[in-house]
């Protein structure tokens, strides 16, 4: 009887500690988190495990149990209900303690100085802060990034409006769109494409026309819907698209 009372008190202490640590500010369990599951008076059913990418943990007798999105207190209650529902235990008492928090991390991929995984701090969950922690976007990187959350991608301005990240997000920084210009221009090559850029502005980026060039003999090569390259005459006010090739021909006179 005394052992039972002592055991119950220890279990209650474990639950209280869990409430003060693992459930801070309503923290929810997520993939990668390590947890300790304690089943009162059932040491064979207690376990230490990690939340899988499917949001589950493996429990003796129960198999996989979904815990992602639950607080540690909610997870303990849910596991106890499963033990009771399966008629394994009559009055199960279960506590869940968070031992390693990894779901509060995000992945930064692509055109940044230091790709990798970064922890979200309570005071710093802004996209711009995480990009800064990753060393910033490289000169070849785009100003708009893709944030993938729960499998759903969305385009976000990297340094524009404040965008709050969540644990498990993936930030993909793509290579900036480019155009190509060659022929009778001062500096042929590939250049970063700015939004709304015209052929005239593209020529300026390439250093301008050479003395032999004709601004009336401009060709634009662009893939059609089937991927076939189509060459058309270009005007100075035409808007340039990503992957366009501008060819400046020599004047006939």
Summarize the structure.
The protein contains four helices and 15 strands.
Describe this protein's structure:
This protein has 253 residues and is α+β, with helices and mostly antiparallel strands. The chain folds into three domains: 2-100, wza like domain (wza like fold, 2-Layer Sandwich); 105-173, Outer membrane lipoprotein wza fold like, CATH 3.10.560; 178-250, Outer membrane lipoprotein wza fold like, CATH 3.10.560. 19% of the residues lie in helices and 33% in strands. It contains four helices and 15 strands. It has helices at residues 2-21, 72-85, 127-133, 199-205; strands at 34-39, 47-50, 56-59, 63-66, 94-100, 105-110, 116-119, 144-149, 152-157, 170-173, 178-183, 189-192, 213-223, 229-233, 245-250. The strands form four sheets. The protein has a five-stranded mixed sheet with strand order 7-6-10-8-9, covered by helices on one side. A five-stranded mixed sheet has the order 12-11-15-13-14, covered by helices on one side. The protein is rod-shaped, with a radius of gyration of 29 Å. 25% of the residues are buried.
Number of helices: 4
Percentage beta strand? 25-35%
SSE order: HEEEEHEEEHEEEEEHEEE
Could you give the distance between the termini? Answer: 108 Å
Number of structural domains? 3
Mean pLDDT metric: 86
Kindly state the number of beta strands.
Answer: 15
Structural class: alpha+beta
Q: Shape from CA axes? A: rod-shaped
């Amino acid at each position: 009887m005394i052992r039972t009372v002592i055991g119950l008190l220890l279990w209650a202490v474990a639950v209280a500690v869990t409430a003060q640590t693992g459930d801070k500010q309503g923290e929810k369990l997520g993939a990668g988190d390590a947890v300790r599951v304690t089943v009162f008076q059932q040491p064979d059913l207690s376990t230490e495990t990690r939340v899988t990418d499917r949001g589950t943990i493996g429990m003796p007798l129960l198999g996989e149990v979904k815990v992602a999105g639950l607080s540690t207190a909610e997870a303990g209650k849910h596991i106890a209900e499963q033990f009771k529902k399966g008629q394994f235990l009559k009055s199960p008492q279960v506590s869940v303690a968070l031992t390693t928090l990894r779901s509060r991390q995000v992945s930064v991929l692509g055109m940044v100085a230091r790709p990798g995984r970064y922890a979200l701090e309570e005071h710093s969950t802004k996209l711009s802060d995480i990009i800064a922690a990753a060393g910033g976007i490289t000169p070849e990187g785009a100003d708009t990034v893709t944030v993938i959350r729960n499998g759903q991608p969305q385009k976000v301005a990297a340094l524009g409006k404040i965008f709050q990240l969540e644990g498990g997000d993936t930030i993909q920084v793509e290579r900036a769109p480019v155009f190509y210009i060659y022929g009778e221009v001062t500096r042929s090559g590939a250049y970063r494409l700015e939004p709304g850029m015209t052929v005239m502005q593209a020529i300026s980026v390439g250093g301008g026309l050479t003395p032999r060039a004709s601004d009336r003999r401009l060709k634009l090569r662009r893939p059609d819907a089937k991927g076939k390259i189509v060459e058309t005459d270009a005007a100075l006010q035409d808007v340039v698209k990503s992957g366009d090739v501008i060819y400046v021909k020599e004047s006939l006179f």
